[in-house]
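WARN no homologs supplied; continuing
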Amino acid sequence: MKFQLYIQKHTTQITWTTAALIAAGFLSKYLLNSTMFYQIFLAIASIIAVIPIAIHAYQAARAKVISIEFLVTVAVIGAFIIGEYNESAIVTFLFLFGNFLEQKTLSKTRESIKSLTEMAPTTAEVVQADGSIEEVDIDDVDEGDVVLVKTGAAIPVDGVVVEGNGYADEAAVTGESREVNKALDDEVFSGTMLSDGFLKIKATKVGDDTTFAKIVELVEDAQDTKSHAEKFIDRFSQYYTPAVLLIALIVFIFSRDFKLAITVLVLGCPGALVIGAPVSNVAGIGNGAKRGILIKGGEVMDTFAKIDTFVFDKTGTLTKGSTSVSATKRYNDSFNDTLALAAKIETLSDHPLGRAIIQYAGDQNVDYQDLEISDNETIKGQGIAAKINCQQVLAGNSKLMAARNVAMTDKQQADLIELQGTGSSVVIVAIDSQITAIFGVSDVIRPEVAEELANLKASGAKHLVMLTGDNQVTANYVAQQLGIDEVHAELLPDQKVEFVKKFQAEGRKVAFVGDGINDSPSLATADIGIAMGSGTDVAIETSDVVLMQSSFAALVHAYKLSKKTVLNTRENVTIAIAVVAFLLLGLVAGFIYMASGMFVHEASILVVIFNAMRLINFGKKNDAKLVPAVVHS
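OK structure emitted
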């Protein structure tokens, strides 16, 4: 066992030692004209190089698998029997060198995981009962502990801020490089960096339960989950390797040419075929992980590429999920005065429409705090009446205006109908019996959605569907603005699931895109569940794809990436099969020999690896679009 571990640990050194011995052998032959030293150097190189290969073959045989290494080991033994030390030395070196490059390349595709794990903090500064600070191992932090995080340090737990203020770089969780202000009661995530300020954080999740730990585990598991192509290749290899052995035996029986039979063994090794699919999936999943897109494995990637129908939840997915003033109709020259009075009267109410108007006044930098309310009345189902700075102010619906004998002009009636036609709730404001403004309040459509849904269609999506619990008028308006093909409104969660099943029964491949919480049944039912969210437990566990940034550009990138990854896998499989066919035909035709064939064989492995590496930078030029615009709430 110790010998095996030693060999595995020093395989790279063995590879370079073999190269040096081969070089020494050829120098002896052509500079010193010594055939004896040439044979000795190449024989030693063959023996040294075949050891790690034979160990792998033995380990595979114990698991009842006839591996590629077994074919190479048999081929080297055969080359020794016939005295072809140059063939055995070159074959073993190329095989080891190919494995060396393969591991180097695969490690590059896993850099996103390495960078994530390196960001995980190992210690935390815990605030003690007496106010002192003690640095403890991260595994010793418990839920409810308060930890201190200083400028430049990694946040060690999921929790809420109980003291302090600062800016956190949340790229490790959301993929978004923009720094986010963190203050009292704000949520923070383990693994994110505090770039400025200081925070005291009460831990709500620690260790393996943190969002960051789950993300790392998810991506690691995803890169080990096999696609349909990989599963096929695994089954294929189980029969292919014994078949090559049988063919080599048949070749020897009929030709009595031992060297030819050994060459068949070497050239029949399906190295590029075995590595082609896994390296494509690892590169594709790594590409997504670096951009805050978590794809749960090769099989998910394979299914995602076949999606033709995207079903969307509305609130919080296609829209921002919070009501705000989306339109204003103005009927006097002093709109800011009207807005100030409207905001002041709405301070008397806790209604969402009122809060939206107050927020809008704040965004417009309109000062209303110093206005004085001398009398007020709340009329249930209609609105509010109040005297503000000696002016009689009304804010409510058309019923309130009619009850207070405030007449609406034809223009105002038309504006009211227009706003209601967009699905907006309306607040009519009247000052001293004259209507001065109408505010349309709605859940605002995300500004980037229309363009990205068009990009999604251009990328291969055939049907865009919206399922929502909202009213039909609002749903129709949103669908019209976004180019949604089909809309169904006023649905409960279980009714959304029935629609997903209906689409699947029609033969469609369905992806459901939701917020990962109330839509979890639909996410689980669809062929692919896509959670638009900040990495909640439900989103990570229920969905197949998690878009940490809630960005539609990320959704389009993920869809394109899945198609590109599947295409890349097919390219690699095609290359691998074509190379094996070429080598065997070349062997029969007499222009391919063991050394040259092994060179082509190892070169094909590098070709499929480098082809897969193109996925690492796929879509890099559009990275700026993956960061969503800042939403002020």
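The chain has a mean pLDDT of 81.
OK
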